[in-house]
Amino acid sequence: MTVSPMRLSESTGHPPPPERTFRPELQGLRALAAALVVVYHVWLGRVSGGVDVFFVVSGFLITGQLYRARTRGRIEFRPMWGRMIKRLFPAALTVLMVTMAAAVLVLPEHRWFQTIREIVASALYLQNWQLAADSVDYFAQHSTAGVAQHFWSLSIQGQFYLLWPVLVTVVALAARRMGWSLRGALLTALSGVFVISLSYSVWLTAVNQPLAYFTSLTRVWEFALGGLLALAINAIVLPRTLRLLLGWVGVVALVACGLVFQVGSVFPGYAALWPTLAAALVLLAGATGSRAGADRFLSARPLAYLGDVSYALYLWHCPVLLFYLAVRDQEDVGLRGGAGVIGLSLLLAVLTYHLIESPVRRSRIGVTTRWGAYRFGVMTLIPVLVAAGAWQLLSVQRASFASDRAEHPGARALAAGGPILDLERSVVPPFAALPDEFANHSSENCHRDPEFDELQMCVVGPRSAPARRLVVVGDSHAQQVVAGLIPGTRSRDWQITTMLKGGCPLTATATDTGCAEWNEAAVREIIEMRPDAVVTIATRDVRVGLTERTPEGYVQQWRRITAAGIPVVGVRDNPRFDFNPPSCAQKHGLDASRCGRPRAELLAPEPPYARVPDLPGTVSFVDLSDFYCTDDFCPPAIGNVFVYLDDNHVTKTYMETLAPMFEKRLIGALDWEDDRVTTPAPR
């Protein structure tokens, strides 16, 4: 980075580019940010705020470069983006190719589809938008962390590098037309971007933090902050003593950020001002010329070299960490394991820097021919996309299956008193198909509540003159129940209306504002509809340690609904494990007792709702626990069907095998007649 005193250029009338003054502390700042990201991620399982520093530094550097280019005449887009391709593509695409090869060998099959999506999105610099879309999909949030998930920040940077030159050019053209100075116009424009993006970030973080974390629009202000510093830093003259203080305050604040904040759950919003302003303080401190200055520390040769390899280190550390955990079947790495992960990541980063990054960057690619860098980019991108496509075809083939009632009786095996598992027969769904085993139904007959848009209601079954009208309401565990009721829409002419929101059970004591509002809207709509019955979940936290309970908030909502003359059926929740049973089964085999749990560790001897006093007579219950567990054990598969798709959700296939018994118990709980129809009503 270089800076110069202000004077007007005779050729352009604009202030000339600042004199070039090397800023070695920037490499050290990058190195510190990368080290914090890796250390916090590997050992603390937290986010450090280091990525936000990358954004500020990127904004600082590229804005200064674009400003200088514009004052010299114009911004050359083609060579600039060509250099970006040479700098970013080789290391990133190499890591993605190696990650794919390792994932096929190491990751369980049910994680393949997720990994393929992440690889493709990362290669196209769209990973942050993929994760933003997943953040509003409750079930997607429960996927195991992806080996390419860390590419979200690189995607935002790639989008920034693409759009920022366009923004600067538009502002420069407007400034020339209006007779404004380029510096003043850019300061005004970037100030506007800063205020608007930060305001949106604060609002969206409060409303939907997972979405806010990944979307580009909530992060633009961080680049704008760096850009404002690049434009204004020469006009800020500070005493040396103050600069010494600011430099160290910035460094200490940056190191402490991840300890002070739960960055992963409160960023970006106001909280992201902490690491970004810390980086700004280091930039403002600049070169102090003092042995006691933070810049002296940041300019040290080891940190400067770490800054050189920081990009590759960031790329490698996440897949190395997650593959280590997958191979070792562990939740955390420990001290020695973490040291090994960081050591291997650093070694791979050094090799990548010297064998791939530097040679390509110094090469004549894109220099001898106008579009050479772009052809090079396409040539390196195509193998990644082709390999991902081939892996996708393999995954689809592995995920296809046909469930035969005799071969795969599922819950019917327990109902008939047969063997739990026949190891000579296949088990369904295949591991690769498990991500698609969450109970979903067609969204064609769905509509939003006019008074509360977050409440979506979907209708399954006959639209007119149904035999019974049921409402299923609650969170993802209520949603999985729907798969066991849908057969009744055909055999019994039932109509099912779903009111579902991931993470929001039917309760009067929701602590999340969105869930509280959603609950109010759902109960209001149910009372207006007056269905024949409401089906919801009656217990929660069925985990190791017997914490199964019926919360008071559940009971309060049941009382409100039954007071309107509407019966409520509470379904006892399925067990929740402290590990992933299907992943365990893929590694250790279905006959291994380690992939299940003793029933006594998961379920109380008596359902907790049996101890709730003074329940209305129109509240009844269905307990399906004897179809999830035998008298003494809860296995991963029953009747050659996997019971679970993760650590707590039941597969759609298993729930469908449970449908006849579920229907029978539901009818008994409501004291209805067995209204099975021999000929399904026409649709």
Report on the architecture of this protein.
The protein is an alpha/beta fold and 683 residues long. The protein folds into two domains: 367 residues, no CATH class; 260 residues, Rossmann fold, CATH 3.40.50. Helix content is 55%, strand content 7%. The protein is built from 23 helices and eleven strands. Strands 1-2-4-3-5-6-8 form a seven-stranded mixed β-sheet, with helices on both faces. Strands 7-9 form a two-stranded antiparallel sheet. β5, α20 and β6 form a beta-alpha-beta unit. The longest helix is centred in the N-terminal third of the chain and has 30 residues. The radius of gyration is 30 Å and the shape is elongated. The N terminus and C terminus are likely disordered.
Task: Give the SSE layout.
Layout: H1 25-44, H2 50-72, H3 77-106, H4 112-123, H5 127-135, H6 151-178, H7 182-207, H8 209-214, H9 220-232, H10 240-260, H11 263-266, H12 273-285, H13 294-298, H14 301-328, H15 334-362, H16 372-399, H17 411-415, E1 446-449, E2 452-460, E3 468-474, H18 476-491, E4 494-500, H19 513-529, E5 533-537, H20 552-563, E6 568-571, H21 581-588, E7 597-598, H22 599-602, E8 619-622, E9 633-634, E10 637-638, E11 641-642, H23 652-670
Parallel strand pairs: 3-4, 3-5, 5-6, 6-8
Antiparallel strand pairs: 1-2, 2-4, 7-9, 10-11
Helix pairs in contact: 1-2, 1-10, 1-14, 1-15, 2-6, 2-9, 2-12, 3-4, 3-14, 3-15, 3-16, 4-5, 4-16, 5-6, 6-7, 7-9, 9-12, 10-12, 14-15, 18-23
